[in-house]
Design brief:
The chain has 2 helices and 3 strands. The chain is α+β, with helices and mostly antiparallel strands. It has a 3-stranded antiparallel sheet with strand order 2-1-3, with helices on one face.
Length: about 80
């Protein structure tokens, strides 16, 4: 089975968009990744907890490619200490 080359999201563009919208700098936050069923909206689980922005974006991008029936959200859980 061949895998297509994975293109990760542009973290700096995502960060700039958040800052220009008046949000806190996501690089200073910790996140959890929450998974929902696309069809029903049912909470399926929390595949990752308390991770940095870069790691959250990169791991979520990989999850999206492998779990096409799911929807993922990043929830902030605190500040980087």
């Amino acid at each position: 089975m061949q895998h297509a080359a994975q293109t990760l999201p542009d973290l700096q563009s995502i960060r700039n968009e958040a800052l220009s919208a008046g949000a806190l700098d996501p690089m200073n936050l910790r996140f959890r990744v929450v998974e929902y069923d696309k069809a029903s909206g049912e909470l399926l689980g929390v595949p990752m907890q308390d991770i940095g922005f870069r790691e959250a974006i990169e791991k979520t991008a990989r999850l999206i490619q492998t779990r096409s029936d799911s929807h993922f959200c990043l929830h902030p859980v605190g500040f980087i200490q």
